Please model this.
Amino acid sequence: MFSKERYQYFQELATVNYPFFFWEYTPDMELLNSNCPFSEYANQLLTLNGGRSYLCQQAAQNSTLPLILSDVFEVLWAAVFSTAVDGSVDGILLMGPVLANDYSLQQFSSKLDQYALSVSMRRQIHDFFYSLPMVPGPVFYQYVLMLHRCIRQETLTFRHILQKTLFDDTPSPKDDFENQKKKLRDMTSQCTPMSTDAQKLSSNFIYQQEDVFTSTDHSGIVSFENELNLVIEQGNLGALDIVSKGAILSGGVRAVQHNSLQRARYNCIIFITICSRAAIRGGLSPDISYSLCDLYTNAVDGCQSVNDIKNLNDAILHDFVSRVHEHRKNPNISAPIATCIDYISMHVKDPIEAETLADLTGYKVYYLTKKFKNETGMSLNQYIQKEKIAYARILLSSTGNSITDISEALSYHSQSYFSKTFQKETGMSPTEYRLQSYGSATAIPSKS
Model:
């Protein structure tokens, strides 16, 4: 049930970092309350992009998941639906609008000219627009999840957020950046491929586009990709939620000339490429991996919304990880032992007891442990430790978590025991492994 007190407390916390606007509506989008001093203009903006009618439709369908709306201006609104005892939507809570990126400001004036507004209204909306906070997409997603938790008392992940693009914004052929690219193609077409002239032209084009080509912070992405690669290479079924982790680290490709759906398509193609190459390193046949790459790349064009892309990303990761997992299986492993192996992979962070595995297979502990060693060549405990250390290597090479935090995350009763086990398995201490992974020329995470 909706709690006014929790909602107000969330607003106090959220506005510490960003000057968010909050709105309370009836299911029919009648405004009840807002802290926005420009509510008339914000409502006008929400009406222009079709957001009001779409939210009414969602409320009528008793929607329960949080929703992010984006439009041609790259303006974001978040919606959370409160429900009555009977499950029907009895209120719509909005947070926003916020600007997603610099593209919003760059394109706003030209887009606003498309609407038949009075000079006074145009000026007022212009002033309001330039007063909005700019919030990185991944950060905004986290606030949306917290707002949903506050209103509905449910803890969700990035995957549960629905996204709706209002109006299909096809880039204009007169777009300045498109014209610059055409100019570059015309110039380079007259040069011999790989010649000095061609290289100079390309370099000049890139460095003249200071608003397009800039060195931006991508902290966290290298670590995420390292972890993603290892998860796929190892066929680790227990780490399939890694996509959610990547989603909160970066907004992806900074292709400012395209809308959110187009950017999501670009990101998905990059994701497919990473997955296919990692799967090959994990032992999957290159023919199969490249065929999957072609299949999923073609599927990207069929996606009509950001939600479609999110679902496709999940399917891609699960497919590649599952195929590598199956490839790495020993054909001489029986079904009961394979069940144990899968369980260990899925619960590698948890304490794993032989009794639990025995219950899964229907065997006595003594018989199971003996059968496990006969088929795998190592004792049950040795195998569990091997898998835990493999995951520890991922965390050490791709995160800044302290060794104590990693040992606790993998359910070791002490850091010293974890370090001893790690040393025995890899021949080096966790600290030495981390230093080796990052190399002498690469920045090491802040925590040791």
Summary: Residues 306-328 form the longest helix (23 residues).
